[in-house]
Amino acid sequence: MRTVRMLGEAGLIDRLRRGLHRPSSVLVGIGDDAAVLAPTGSMRLLFASDMVVEGVHFRRGRTPAPWIGWKALAVNVSDIAAMGGWPRWAVVSLGLPASTPVRFIDGLYAGLERCAQRFGVALVGGDTVRAPQVVIDVAIVGTVSAAHLTLRSGARVGDALFVTGRLGGSYRSGRHARFMPRLREAHLLLQRVPVRAMMDVSDGLASDLWQMSRASRVRLRIDAQRVPVHPSAKTLEHALMDGEDFELLFAVRSRDAARVPRRLGRCPVTRIGSAIGRGIGVELAGRSGRITPLVHRGFKHF
Amino acid sequence: MRTVRMLGEAGLIDRLRRGLHRPSSVLVGIGDDAAVLAPTGSMRLLFASDMVVEGVHFRRGRTPAPWIGWKALAVNVSDIAAMGGWPRWAVVSLGLPASTPVRFIDGLYAGLERCAQRFGVALVGGDTVRAPQVVIDVAIVGTVSAAHLTLRSGARVGDALFVTGRLGGSYRSGRHARFMPRLREAHLLLQRVPVRAMMDVSDGLASDLWQMSRASRVRLRIDAQRVPVHPSAKTLEHALMDGEDFELLFAVRSRDAARVPRRLGRCPVTRIGSAIGRGIGVELAGRSGRITPLVHRGFKHF
Prior knowledge:
With 302 residues, chain A is an alpha+beta fold. The first copy, chain A, is 28% helix and 30% strand. In chain A, the strands form three sheets. In chain A, strands 7, 8, 9, 10, 11, 12, 13 and 14 form an eight-stranded mixed sheet that branches. In chain A, strands 3-6-4-5 form a four-stranded mixed sheet, with helices on one face. The mean pLDDT of chain A is 90.
């Protein structure tokens, strides 16, 4: 079996470059000290990164290499979508054991490039280094118009809260690596209605609601019966806590709530609650009308 | 001893945010799905990343945490400098064992921020995840004017080759983590003389000369006696092969060679050779006038 050790660093980089598309905004791609990019006019830039580690975010052998590559970029596309922007360019830093099969790398890059093409991203550079296990860190730069920029801090008292898709069971079902970032859905939404606050659901709805509450300084109340539970999740508990859903959580003015479509493309959109007052807190209204504080315990890294 | 496990992810991120400066070009910094940046006018963007792995690039206990942080950003600043640009914004992805002492993280970030302030970079986001050992990946975005953009592919037959500083012994002497990226020197140079090609010396002069040769498609001849050997390197062999120097290697038209200053600030500049013909190759002219092919065997990752 051919391994990374047999390719060497230069051979590895040559291999990674092959098959990558290069739009005209990329003046210089992989191979120099840095990529050279031509941004468009007065747009603002979005800049984010996400690291994926073997044994923590995926297991080799369990998740096929192309899906690991897809996921490594898709989580970044999801971040840009949640800001109301367009993903444009990405750099990929790859830590690899020397014994990594070349086939694994080829699969990884096939998945990265498939995701890149699907969402209009150019892979323009990065780094390859030796590491005790596979580590993939993707940094992404996107553009956004000031009119469409949606922060998680923009929710206000009275706003209606929505979520796309269905939540929970993502890791167990394997969806966590194969998911579709809600880029198209975000822009369909932004064309239809002014969005006050938006973020992606990555740590679990409960945890991400707390983040929106803290950033916007509003108390949020969620209607337990309305939370869209994914078939693979089965229980509300999983829908609230599992994470890795990469759906959009967003807030609109209450008077705009009726203008939010029930579907964006084929993706369902569900109203799950409201911002009920100033302060920081998230509560769950149960079937009986009983209200309990929503404790978050999403995926804990440490 | 307090560890990352005791802080938790939110506690860790709060801690990392503290003490970071935020220039006016950063509209939204750490805490949302992505940072929001305001680029200036018609500049082009530079985008690069470099990953630093415990046990490969540094050993905890041997290299103090602030120097690990300094290095993780400085290698990226060096990339931007070698392109003729200005480093502006960086995101930091951090993989950490849960048992990592908080003191180590504080030191790491103190070093990152010291380097950031020294070179005008804003740390605007990133990711923190669990990993079996410390992994730091910094992605950087810089700006560059079209007039100052210096690729490694611009050298032409007849050009004179120069290098800043002195080479070799960087890892052994500990300089590899404490080095000063040649940002100021690059811009002092660009103000004085048109530079045709430039790159930073990271893999070792021999290896990097081969890269410039391949990118520019010119054969390079180096005068062995002129290669500036660092006192900690002792031999020409080390100066050519060690790497991690982060000096600038650049080419100017032969008629401009006399305009290249002998010092940029306090940093010596040495003419080491020329581009002698078309094709790909690097050769070394020895004391006796004997010419031998320069084989490169810089640091091998795999």
